[in-house]
Amino acid sequence: MGRLLASWGAWPLAPPPKSAYEVIYKSVVLTKLLYATSAWWGFATSADKQRLQAFLRRGVRLNLYSALDPSVCVQDTDDELFSAVMSKSHHVLHHMLIHEKWPGL
């Protein structure tokens, strides 16, 4: 990854600190991988999930990421989306929530 960043002109004189690699990995790579997981995760085959897990293991082996299980990442993104929908009344999906209390619950 260092050579790639150097070819883009990032950190030309010295390699970046490890934390910078982690930030880039999480903000670029994981964001692209986990984009819209709520929509496609249910349709992914076990082979697709294994490939994703192998890719994440490689990031863990390089100390770029700590979670191994992609389903944990998917659950986290689902939880973040649901929290955003619940807490922000201007969210585009907020009007779809049921605001009535269910009888007996």
Short description:
With 105 residues, the protein is an all-alpha fold.
List the helices and strands and how they pair.
Layout: H1 2-7, H2 18-34, H3 37-40, H4 46-61, H5 70-87
**What is the N-to-C succession of helices and strands?**
HHHHH
Q: Roughly how many Å apart are the termini? A: 52 Å
Helix/strand/pairing category: mainly alpha
Shape: elongated
What is the CA-based Rg, rounded?
Answer: 19 Å
Mean pLDDT: 76
Q: In which range does the helix fraction lie?
A: 55-70%
Number-wise, the strands total 0
Number of distinct helices: 5
- Biggest beta sheet attributes: none
**Poorly predicted runs:** none
Strand content: under 5%
Oligomer: single chain
Question: Which labels suit this protein?
Answer:
single chain; about 100 residues; mainly alpha; 5 helices
Structure commentary:
The chain is an all-alpha fold and 105 residues long. The protein has a domain at 28-93. The protein has five helices and no strands. The mean pLDDT is 76.
